[in-house]
Design brief:
Blueprint: H1 4-17, E1 23-24, E2 43-48, E3 58-62, E4 70-72, E5 93-100, H2 102-107, E6 112-113, H3 115-125, E7 132-137, H4 147-151, E8 166-167, H5 169-178, E9 181-186, H6 200-206, E10 211-214, E11 228-234, E12 242-251
Parallel strand pairs: 5-7, 6-8, 7-9, 9-10
Antiparallel strand pairs: 1-12, 2-3, 4-10, 4-12, 5-11, 11-12
Helix pairs in contact: 3-5, 5-6
The structure holds zinc ion.
């Protein structure tokens, strides 16, 4: 019989070799950056582009907090929740858990992720690691360049018409109950499905210290299910309800899963 150690020894180098370099999981911020219809767009002004004997450049920009690839602080939906500048920085770097929901979202573009999806992930890849950053891969990031497809509507200026998949309340509760999750991310515009107008998954998660990552720019080639780290570093906005965030997938130099038996 194969021991768990033998199994890991065979599968981990394979998983790691699939991602030799860090991968940027961030959409670029520019005037086309997507956002819910209630927010202002990203706007950049080139202010100084002159110099006598030297090149000098500088820009001003205006942005909504919740736009493009961004983080939701618990305060976004909970008046007692922590703000973005108050989140412990140790929670910005965690163990990657990529949940492949592409087939389900293709069959049902309003699919809601259930506890069974996470239980199925654990059955295949082991327990959700301590300090996990969960990323829901709906295969949605490739739609980002087409706003109508990304929001699932012909009228992107009316958020009540949005249609895309999301996380169920039961799924959110299941993740909270593991006690091991730092953050929950999605490649769609929101943790809640597009049809939602009362944002129940946001509300449930905001009662905890878990932050959300939205519009995560997952690559076309799916990331390995686990075995690497994610760093999500938001702009440190005082009392921010959220912020633009740079997200990286980073290969583990060593096996650092805290709850893997060795
Ligand atoms: Zn948000």
């Amino acid at each position: 019989m194969y021991s768990l150690f033998t199994m890991l020894a065979y599968t981990l180098p394979l998983v790691l070799s699939e991602m030799p370099e860090p991968v940027d999981l961030t959409h670029t911020y520019d005037e086309d950056t997507l956002h819910f219809s209630v927010y202002r767009s990203f706007n950049l002004t080139k202010v100084y582009m002159q110099g006598v004997n030297t090149f000098f450049s500088s820009n001003d920009f205006q942005t909504a907090e919740h736009l493009g690839t961004h983080m939701d602080a618990p305060y976004h939906f909970n008046p007692d929740g922590v703000r973005v500048d108050e989140i412990l920085v140790s929670r910005f770097i965690g163990q990657a858990v990529i949940v492949d929901l592409r087939t389900k979202a293709q069959a049902d573009p309003e699919y809601l992720v259930t506890p069974e999806d996470f239980i199925g992930w654990e059955r295949r890849y082991g327990p959700i690691p301590k300090g996990a950053i969960i990323i829901l891969d709906f295969g949605w990031a490739v739609k980002y360049t087409n706003p109508q497809e990304f929001f699932g509507t012909a009228n992107i200026n009316d958020y009540t018409t949005y249609r895309f998949p999301g996380l169920s309340v039961a799924g959110a509760r299941w993740l909270i109950n593991t006690g091991r999750v730092y953050g929950v991310g999605t490649d769609t515009a929101s943790i809640d499905c597009g049809r939602s107008t009362d944002f129940p998954a946001h509300k449930v998660l905001s009662k905890t210290t878990i932050y959300n990552l939205e519009m995560v720019a997952l690559p076309k080639e799916p990331l390995p299910p686990t075995g690497f780290q994610i760093a999500a570093l938001p702009m440190k906005i005082r009392e921010g309800t959220g912020a633009p965030v740079r997200i990286l997938a980073i290969p583990n130099p060593f096996l650092q899963h805290t709850n893997m038996p060795l």
